[in-house]
Amino acid sequence: MRLSSLIQDSSQQAYIAFINEQVSNFSPLALIGNLFAQIRGFLSNFILIIFTIIFLLLEASTLPKKIGIIFSVNDSDPEFLNQFTHGVQRYLGIKTIISSITGMIVAAFTFLIGLDFPMLWGLTAFLLNYVPTIGSLIAAVPAVALAIVQLGISDAIIIAIGYFAINFFIGGILEPRIMGKGLGLSTLVVFLSLVFWGWIFGPVGMLLSVPLTMTAKIACSYSEKTKLIAVLLSGASDIKK
What we know:
Blueprint: H1 2-25, H2 28-58, H3 63-70, H4 78-113, H5 118-128, H6 134-150, H7 153-183, H8 187-201, H9 203-207, H10 209-220, H11 227-233
């Protein structure tokens, strides 16, 4: 009994010493510095994405012709142009709806937790959800940082877990299925396109992954040589028996 009591006392002392060491090493300035470094990196990527979108819009009128040349498609074909335009519009519409749902859930969640400025966190989640996968996680950084200061570590952990759960459900389950059905792409293809284009072009590639894949699928469907690729990219409901 005495031996077990000594072991228990020594374990408690070691645990208390560990907690004291962690508390003494905690530096709010270091935390704020890391936060600003992450925000700076995000702003750099965000500006890069904005300029990429601007240049894409400036060259949007010539894009169908370029795609037609690459895939030997007649760019004046009204069906090709209609499919291309309709696909981009559907993508932006679906993405906006999903981003709105994400923003409302985040705003309601942070309000129920008691975090200040819930509407701001909802708006941030809405805007950053246009960046697939990592956008919602980046949106969590300032909210969690404020929660540490306002509510404490335990509530900040709850908020971080909540953001992760929202991102996992909407970004990992709901969005790929809706995107796949709405755009005629396989759910697996939507996910793999995110990985592939993100690996090639970074955050810009992740943002444009679905439009790029959808464009390739539409163009491939117009050539007998590449029709097999279009079938492989298609969702189950889009395959003609």
